[in-house]
Design a protein that fits this description.
Elements (H helix, E strand, L loop, with lengths): L3 E7 L8 H11 L2 E7 L2 H19 L3 H32 L3 E6 L4 H11 L3 E6 L1 H6 L4 H10 L4 E3 L5 H4 L2
Parallel strand pairs: 1-2, 1-4, 2-3, 4-5
Helix pairs in contact: 1-3, 2-3, 4-6
């Protein structure tokens, strides 16, 4: 059964919520997994602001503060990488092929459409809970996505802390 499941998640979520479901589904269906990482514009803006602040401090001969700001960024990037290492090791353990890529798009619909145009093996699109939550995906967005993407779409959600305790 050739084909792949496209798992769409935020590029800064090292926990990768919902991936275990995708991994089990791929194992059962005999599919490969492609993970598409999408940058959230607010988080990207925060990164740009942090880098700009570091540059400003460096120009003002406040090199120690600039280093601290950039080290915070490196720590965050390191944590991010560790999350994706766990994806790869989980896939190796389950004997499921996985590829991980980033999208230049910050719009979910554009990112998924661009990916599918260049990868014709996609059988299903799975939107991780972090994507649904942070990009505020609602029924209207899903309908728009369904109009342009012929593959089945699964939008995962997670319970809020108050719902979990109920």
């Amino acid at each position: 059964m050739a084909g792949e499941l496209l798992f769409v998640t935020a590029s800064d979520d090292a926990r990768v919520e919902g991936f275990s479901y995708t991994l089990e589904l791929a194992k059962v269906l005999g599919k490969e997994i492609s993970v598409l990482l999408i940058e959230h514009t607010k988080r990207f803006a925060a990164y740009i602001n942090r880098v700009a602040a570091a540059v400003t401090f460096a120009e003002a001969d406040e090199h120690e503060i600039a280093r601290e700001l950039m080290q915070k960024q490196e720590i965050q990037e390191g944590a991010d990488g560790d999350g994706y290492k766990s994806i790869i090791s989980a896939c190796i353990q389950k004997k499921v092929n996985v590829t991980i890529g980033r999208s230049e798009e910050t719009n979910i619909i554009s990112a998924v459409c661009s990916y599918i145009k260049t990868h014709n093996k996609v059988d299903m699109v799975i939107l991780a809970p972090d994507i649904v939550r942070s990009f505020n995906i609602r029924a209207a967005s899903l309908k728009r996505l369904a109009r342009v993407v012929p593959q089945p779409i699964v939008a995962m959600s997670s319970l809020s802390p108050s719902e979990k305790n109920s």
